[in-house]
Amino acid sequence: MRTNKKQQLLATAMDIVESDGLQGLTYDSLSTATGTSKSGLIYHFPSRRALEVELNKYSASLWTQALEDIAGAPPQQLDLPLRLKAIVINQSTSARRADLFLTLQSLPDPEIRRIWTDAWQPWSEGIAENSAALFILTLADGLWTSDHVNPTPLSATERQLIVEQACAFIDSVQWDSGRLPAHVDIVFPPYSFRSTSDSLSPSGIE
After folding, report:
1. Which domains does the chain have, with CATH numbers?
2. Which is the most buried residue in 65, 71, 182, 206, by most CB within 10 A?
């Protein structure tokens, strides 16, 4: 698919946010980075606010497309376990700073939050009512943000192990009941946890 001018501008805008934060994204910085005149930018983004909104729409579309590419189908054609596996795999790579900046921006902003809510809704159907699904979603979110909140980043091997364990856990759940399976070993370096039907409790440090 041919990338249009607006998408090219938004891709560059994401790179600016990645390096300089949202405060670094201005007409001047985007004009310099793209070689586009300010009047050309204003044609696509009449205001700084319009640029921020379009940037979130662009990022959300990339996220949902990545999920579909991983799953091989749109969310409406997938059951909950397959959607969860796609989410875990997609979020197994460390978040870009730009993604984190946009996520934090969306929380207090109803208009931007709606963009992400609409993008997320088809993939999250059934998760809120299911304790096992919530467990997996929380794990995926932690995997995505881990390197930004811990002094030691996860290695590629560790990330792969976590994904494999998470997918094995998904396969072990009785999804009709929505309960965590009993006596399933889940290993996340350097800790080993044993799940019970009602909770997770530490079984020791390896």
Report:
1. 1-46 (1.10.10), 52-205 (1.10.357.10)
2. 71
Report the phi/psi class of residue 161: left, alpha or beta, with left for phi > 0 and alpha for psi in -120 to 50: alpha
Q: How confident is the model at residue 185 (pLDDT cuts 50, 70, 90)?
A: low
- Which residues lie below 8 Å from residue 70, measured CB to CB, with a gap of 6+? 86, 89, 90
Six-digit token string for 35? 């070689």
Give pLDDT tens digits for 58-71: 999 999 999 999 99
Give the Å distances, CA to CA, from 147 to 5, 40, 191, 193.
33, 37, 17, 21
Full-model pTM:
0.82
What's the mean per-residue pLDDT of the chain?
86
pLDDT score at 179 = 59
